[in-house]
Write a structure and sequence with these properties.
2 copies of one chain form a homodimer. Chain A has 474 residues and is α+β, with helices and mostly antiparallel strands. Chain A has 3 domains: 12-271, Bira Bifunctional Protein, Domain 2 (BirA Bifunctional Protein, domain 2); 286-387, Anticodon-binding domain (Rossmann fold), CATH 3.40.50.800; 401-471, C-terminal domain of ProRS (Translation Initiation Factor IF3, 2-Layer Sandwich). Chain A is 36% helix and 28% strand. Chain A has 14 helices and 25 strands. An 11-stranded mixed beta sheet of chain A has the order 3-7-8-14-11-10-9-22-25-21-20, with helices on both faces. The first copy, chain A, has a 5-stranded mixed beta sheet with strand order 16-15-17-18-19, sandwiched between helices. The first copy, chain A, has a 3-stranded antiparallel beta sheet with strand order 4-6-5. In chain A, helix 2 (39-58) packs antiparallel against helix 6 (166-186). The longest helix of chain A is centred in the last third of the chain and has 26 residues, at 374-399. The interface between A and B is large, with 50 and 50 residues. Strand 5 (90-95) of chain A pairs antiparallel with strand 5 of chain B, so a sheet runs across the interface.
């Protein structure tokens, strides 16, 4: 039976698109470069949103909403910022047939418009810290769009904070990165490398960009979340000042941070297999699908009754598959492709044994479980599956991380898509650029966890204090 | 003490803006015509979203997300539709400095892009009904923007459904209007007139538009939600067809429906008073504010302890007002302006009596309540307040609804902003336009609840079958 999925071995990029297609997660829109998030894909985003929103609110941030449109003049205020974003900006020049006096930009990110407003909101140290988050859509032109990973429009959350001191802002930027790391590892079950971006890779306008980098099954890196220490760069441009306790007027210290629908792309690529989507139970729209099996009307009635009873006993989002027009095989494959964590089969045989068959989507392991034990078993196995997806991904990440001091070996690792390469780097942008040009590998992060270790730059041989993580990236 | 609020009597429009300002709900953005929804205002929107989203999902609709950008050619496909929206459309003509081949429109509503996709998704009767909802931002140019009521960008939910039969679609359009009515009356505590729009007032491209019309405190009407029976208008243009059980290929029947952040505008105008915002308890971000009162450190400690204990005993969103830099009066006025439904005061006097004072925001009624009875009392009084806000608004609506057969009296009612006028109308667009021109009143709805009653058109005297609701509107 053709399941409509290219194998990873054969063509990893096509496999990714096939998994999205057969699971019904998203599709390309009639507008070039944009995507439609279909109900099943959007349900994953809603689960991400719900969990993350609660975690962000726990940090004291409050949700608000700022305009989609930014006057061109405002965006131009911070020089590095506009330089970074200008070429990707979608520009509104007219309303109906009438030309606008000043063009409006569809927000590529909201620092400028939000900080213009922060300057009005913040007067005194009593107004600080100001902690704001918004869930919004963002637009950046893309020449090589890719569902969930790079689309012209995407959905995200962006946090923006202002603080009285540098120390507080720095602490907040790191606190949020840690919140993201915890969320990505516990919910998406994706292990990440946390670290700092190099000067060339950081956010336009930031002092420091902190990042989370995950390894996909093809060995490439995917940046899953960033948190920026903005220092006083924007504060000085937008005049975000406050009267401090000591009677002095001072500029605030700021951070901004975000994760996007790209998380779903990471989720797909980290866990799925050649049979289709594999979802971590904590974010799966459905935890269980119950498939009754029957050969005649009498059996059908009995297994449906049992299936409904089992469904009722489980306090979970689930589906009972009762369609008559499909064979058991077709149903089985459909739910497998959709990555529902557990499949419960109930046929006449199981009925006779007062049991059901429970099958794990990730490992295919089957178990015959007594009816009265189903609820407890399901809860336990979902928890186990969540943890085992993470361990598996972590094992993969470790197996595909290499340490080398040889330029030849370095090039070989990168060329063969062998994952993350830990190598020494002198800290110069020139070497970084040269390495990128020659191998397509970029520095994904200067990892926090790395011990300081003296060595020589992998390219130029000049002294280096620490290894950094190189990889090809999405 | 100047509370920064103009009275309704003095200047209703200014009062509305003042209430929004002092409550911290929203403000004008640096982009002309756009608004910033501040955290307190956004918390109300989040409450609306949470409740309404659950109700919409109960009807079987699933959330999805479609692009913000619509190619100009797509929008032009339905003639009435483009005619209605073209002058308000924001047009993207370039990316960075590069001109786009085909301009993109920022969605003024999503019928066209969604139905272009429905045509791909729908093949057979088995794919029907297709029930989709999306929470999104929308842009329509506004010359006279007004916070929450008319802004260039606003937030809304838009539902889009496709059905096999006309009857089913018609039923869905009415089902959703009823869902909205129930939500608006039970949660926003605003009584509405449900009915049908006239030909001239209906949605561009619809067969019928159903509407909910609410009366504001100045007697003007505010349209709070609409549900459109689209018939096969869009289906024929976008080729949304299905193979029916009988083997015939047929066009689907469609509906679309939405409510927006305008609901918050209605909420403010329906209940608030000259002291500031009044919120229905079911949508208030905070149900209770506890204000400790003290004269010295010893008292402060005792009342804070008690305040915390009371707070802990209430399973509600609440605030305990502990700021030392403000007087009791200032705190009192601040929370009053923010419309928190209940204020609990705890001072040394109350402490001695093992009681607290509970004050209702809407009526100002005070009651001394024994500590152990606070939780039960609060729950009961919040429920009572929710209902009493609705009754009060309903009484106001009834008192300001007039039935007349005299053109002179009609003009007088409208001129004096006396609310809704029930009058006979011949059904001709010409009379409707003439009445609008002369009085500024429009037909808000042909109400469902109205009995058919023979009469003569208020303007031309020709036969009429039913009275319709005239009013000036926002």
């Amino acid at each position: 039976m053709d399941k409509g999925i290219t194998t990873r071995q054969k063509n990893y990029n096509q496999w990714y698109l096939d998994v999205i297609n057969v699971a019904g997660l998203a599709e390309h829109a009639p507008v070039k470069g944009c995507m439609i998030i279909k109900p099943y894909g959007f349900a994953i985003w809603e689960n991400i949103q719900k969990t993350l929103d609660a975690k962000i609110k726990e940090t004291g941030a409050k949700n608000a909403y700022f305009p989609l449109f930014i006057p061109q003049s405002l965006l131009k205020k911070e020089a590095q910022h506009i330089q970074g974003f200008a070429p990707e900006c979608l520009v509104i020049t007219q309303v109906g047939k009438k030309k606008l006096k000043e063009p409006l930009i569809v927000r590529p990110t909201s620092e400028t418009i939000i900080y213009e407003v922060f300057a009005k909101w913040i007067k005194s140290y009593r107004d600080l810290p100001l902690l704001i988050n918004q869930w919004a859509n963002i637009a950046r032109w893309e020449l090589r769009p890719r569902l969930f990973l790079r689309t012209i429009e995407f959905l995200w959350q962006e946090g923006h904070t202002a603080h009285a001191t540098e120390k507080e802002a720095e602490k907040k930027a790191r606190e949020i990165l840690e919140l993201y790391r915890n969320f990505v590892e516990s919910y998406l079950a994706i292990p990440v490398i946390a670290g700092e971006k190099t000067e060339s890779e950081k956010f336009p306008g930031a002092v420091t960009t902190y990042t989370l980098e995950a390894m996909m099954q093809d060995g490439k890196a995917l940046q899953l979340g960033t948190s920026h220490m903005l220092g006083q760069n924007f504060a000085k441009v937008f005049e975000v000042k406050f009267l401090d306790k000591d009677g002095q007027e001072k500029y605030v210290w700021q951070t901004s941070w975000g994760v996007s629908t790209r998380l779903i792309g990471g989720l797909i690529m980290a866990h799925s297999d050649d049979k289709g989507l594999v979802l971590p139970p904590k974010l799966a729209p459905l935890s269980v699908v119950i498939i009754p099996i029957w050969a005649n009307k009498k059996e059908q009635k009995a297994v449906f009754t049992k299936a409904d009873a089992i469904a009722k006993s489980l306090d979970l989002n689930l589906a009972v598959e009762k369609r008559e027009e499909l064979t058991f095989g077709a149903k089985h494959f459909e739910w497998e492709k959709k990555g529902v964590p557990l499949r419960i089969e109930i046929g006449p045989k199981e009925l006779a044994k007062k049991s059901v068959v429970i099958v794990r989507r990730d490992t295919g392991e089957k178990e015959l479980v007594k009816e009265e034990k189903v609820a407890v078993f399901v809860e336990k196995i979902l928890d186990k599956m969540q943890k085992s997806l993470f361990s598996k991904a972590l094992r993969f990440q470790k197996e595909n991380s290499h340490t080398t001091d040889s330029w030849k070996e370095f090039k070989d690792f990168i060329k063969k898509d062998r994952g993350f390469v830990y190598a020494h780097w002198c800290g110069k942008a020139l070497c970084e650029a040269e390495i990128k040009k020659e191998t397509k590998a970029t520095i994904r992060a200067i990892p926090f966890a790395q011990k300081s270790e003296k060595g020589k730059c992998i390219l130029c041989g000049k002294p280096s204090k620490q290894r950094v993580v190189f990889a090809k990236a999405y």
